[in-house]
Amino acid sequence: MSPILVGPLAxxxxxxxxxxxxxxxxxxxxxxxxxxxxxxGKKTLNVKGGxxxxxxxxxxxxxxxxxxxxxxxxxxxKCKVLTDVGPHLPTEMPYMTPKExxxxxxxxCQVKVRKNLEIELPEExxxxxxxxxxxxxxxxLTYDIKELYLALEDKQEIEFQAGQYVQLVVPPYGDIVESTxxxxxxxxxxxxxxxxxxxxxxxxxxxxxxxxxxxLKQGDTVEVVGPFGEFRIHNTQATMICxxxxxxxxxxxxxxxxMHETGAFPxxxxxxxxxxxxxxxxxxxxxxxxxxxSWPRFHFVPALSEQPTSEEGWTGxxxxxxxxxxxxxQGKVDKAKGFEGYLCGSPGMIxxxxxxxxxxxxxxxxxxFDKFA
Length: 373
What we know:
CATH architecture of the largest domain: 3-Layer(aba) Sandwich
Radius of gyration: 23 Å
Number of strands: 17
Distance between the termini: 34 Å
Number of domains: 3
CATH class of the largest domain: Alpha Beta
Structural class: alpha/beta
Strand content: 25-35%
């Protein structure tokens, strides 16, 4: 190994060991006892101190959204902490605006309960529930995306808006010693209150996705928490420009089926651009093409980013989804009613699509997205 690399690697290794030792000492040597958390000046919880605020609240049945399961990598679990708990941590700063810092907004996963706390939470969080469900089916849509269809148990029903998400509770398994949660958009219809459907792509090394793809079986019992999220259809006459890739299909499947089934938002034209690398990454093609042929205001535009061979018989668009989107916005989509953008996918895809939409006279306040953590 190069001597240039030895120093930084040694420092990184020592830092990791020290962080681990500090975490262990904090957990076992610092006994914070029973503490009070007062919420919105109305409700007081008596809790065991020492754990992150996020998990402490969850243990009391109050579920703050957290797309990353408390790793501090999504910025979703914001709440106001009125009590002085010290300065914002480096892990919080990337997700905070100057105004939020001034208003004492914190990430619940990064604030430890070490003293009595006064906090403020949105009232709607108190209606979020934990559901127990059975795996009714688990099928492959592609080589790396599974459709997980869950039947809620104990006569439970879930009320949600098309576009919202739930957090899937992942139990300990293999070398994973602690339960965690990950957020997934619901692809099911809001009218089906007894089921939750999720589309889950395998991420190499991903705790939740590995569990779903390698360990979960039909008939198993799981838990989901929700619904969460503000991603939804807006009640205007503007044309919906929807863009997704991979498992970003999920909220749009829910939205499209809801609109088609109920006749909601009858003035809206809908254009759905779905990008994939090759044909083996495509799914639900026939269902969406049939929907487009029977529903005049819905237009489906699938695109492959890699040039297919002539033997594959691909008849759709070819090129990066952003390039296809740009061509259609400039020459094929009616501009008369104006546009609204709806995006779901990786941060890179979303940022690139936002640039294309802004280039085509769409303002940022009319672009809505569900960005994967």
